[in-house]
Design a protein that fits this description.
The protein is mainly α. It folds into 3 domains: 62 residues, no CATH class; 91 residues; 69 residues, no CATH class. The protein is built from 11 helices and 2 strands, in the order H-H-H-H-H-H-H-H-H-E-E-H-H. It has a two-stranded antiparallel ribbon. Helix 5 packs parallel to helix 7. It is globular.
């Protein structure tokens, strides 16, 4: 749904944009996400229907499961904080321990409240849950199945799903679909960088754009310093620091 909304904005279809935007809010887009993504960029504050939309956002936020949202935010902060520390064997062990704890907590929260869709926990909460699940080897396959269903129901982000699909394939030692997984590491004073193997790389952008991923050449230019798509020879098992 997000892809169609952005397309409507780009192609200047105001009625379609409004309809899709209201549907996105009903599914879980909150004020924080709206402000971060596009409020200032597209002048949404100045649109005639902003007050109506603002009221709907407030109403939908009041219906969400805030204890679940708060727990997910706290877990995601811990998940990312340890990954910002200098990489070492000690840090790797901390990551493993935190991922194990977060997995158990997320499973318990889902059992108690349900799957973290946009409608239940908002866009940010849903993303936080995805962040935790993608770092769990045991939870990821089940979570991926549920996320596929939520995306089909326009109740989760296809962007997150694309990353998780790639990550799951890499966990199986198979080439990725969307080219979301990369490596940038130093081995024996030599920098190894590039994309892990991608299925049908010549047409990868045709798969990336509909799920909200930018052209792969932009990623290559930004992170690898070249317009070429550097493909590594092997798909390793998922590394913990990602």
């Amino acid at each position: 749904m997000w892809y169609y909304y952005v397309t409507a904005e780009i192609e200047n279809h105001p009625l379609k944009s409004k309809e899709l935007l209201f549907r996105l809010v009903a599914k879980g887009l909150d004020k924080g996400g709206a402000e971060q993504l596009f409020l200032h960029d597209i002048g949404l504050f100045e649109r005639a229907y902003w007050h109506e939309l603002d009221s709907l956002i407030s109403l939908e936020e009041s219906k969400r499961c805030h204890p679940f949202i708060d727990s997910l935010a706290a877990m995601a902060e811990i998940d990312q904080a340890v990954r910002r520390e200098p990489w070492s064997e000690e840090n790797r062990q901390k990551v493993i321990a935190i991922d194990s704890t977060n997995t158990a907590k997320l499973e318990a929260l889902i059992t108690k409240y349900g799957f973290p869709t946009w409608k239940l926990v908002g866009r940010e909460g849903s993303h936080n849950a995805w962040l935790i699940a993608q770092h769990s080897h045991t939870l990821l396959p089940w979570y991926l199945t549920q996320l596929r269903q939520a995306v089909q129901e326009n109740n989760a982000d296809s962007y997150d799903l694309a990353y998780m699909e790639d990550r799951f394939l890499m966990q199986q030692g198979q080439p990725q679909i969307y080219g979301s997984q990369m490596s940038w590491r130093i081995v024996a004073d030599d920098t190894i960088k590039g994309f892990y193997p991608i299925v049908d790389v010549e047409h990868v952008n045709e798969r990336r754009l509909p799920v909200g991923l930018c052209p792969i050449e932009f990623i290559s230019r930004t992170y690898l310093g070249t317009d070429s798509i550097i493909i590594l020879k092997e798909t390793p098992l998922i590394e913990e620091k990602k």
